[in-house]
Amino acid sequence: MSDPVLKRTTEIFTTRLQVLAGLLDAAETQWREKAESPETLLAARLSHDMFPFPHQIVFTCNQPNQFAAWCSDAAAPEADPAKLDFAGLKRHVQDTIAYLSERTAGIDDRVLDRDKRIALPGGRFISFTGHLYVDEWLLPNFYFHLVTAYDILRHQGVRIGKANYMAHLAGRVRTAKAG
User: Fold this and answer.
1) Rounded to an integer, what is the distance from CA 167 to the centroid of its chain?
2) Backbone conformation region of residue 35, classed left if phi is above 0, alpha if psi is from -120 to 50, else beta
3) Are 10 and 136 in contact (CB under 8 A)?
4) How many Cα atoms are found within 13 Å in the side-chain-facing hemisphere of 14?
């Protein structure tokens, strides 16, 4: 029997947010070892036409926050990326994990029977079934911004790799028996 969709989605968001917290910790530690402030990372971006690092962190957190708010018929917390320092970004990730846990406790998959309408610029909108909202909107946007934040850190010289990005699997690693 498979896990309920909302439980699985909550676990994905939670474990990947924990990965993001680990990436931020690694960046902060390495910058402090170099006697530099991690605040220098705040202006970093991959391309001139992309949002800078703080936006990527906030946009990553927006997806689980919006998911939890939708599940519980609440308003999603909002954060202004321009007003967050490095410590504020770290706190925002932790606050998102807490909000997700609080708002999704006891929610069952019947929530997925509801539709979700998302306003887009120019008076346009997109509508999803609950399942499509999770699979086609929330998760792809979440991973896009998570990977972009990871890429910015790598591009700025933070010594992280795929093992850091895949840290959510560490507890599943086993050693094969010889023979």
Assistant:
1) 14
2) left
3) no
4) 16
- Tell me the residue type at 97: I
Q: Which amino acid is at 155?
A: H
Three-state secondary structure call for residue 85: coil
For the stretch 110-164, pLDDT in tens is 999 999 999 999 999 999 999 999 999 999 999 999 999 999 999 999 999 999 9
**What's the half-sphere exposure (Cβ side, CA atoms, 13 Å) at 104?**
26
Q: What gap in Å lies between CA 153 and CA 63, rounded to an integer?
A: 21
CATH entry 3.40.640.10 includes domain 5-34+48-169: no
Q: Which two tokens stand for residue 115?
A: 């539709």
SS3 96: helix
Cα–Cα distance measured from residue 170 to residue 54, given in angstroms and rounded to the nearest whole number: 27
- Phi, psi for 173 (deg, rounded to 5): -70, 130
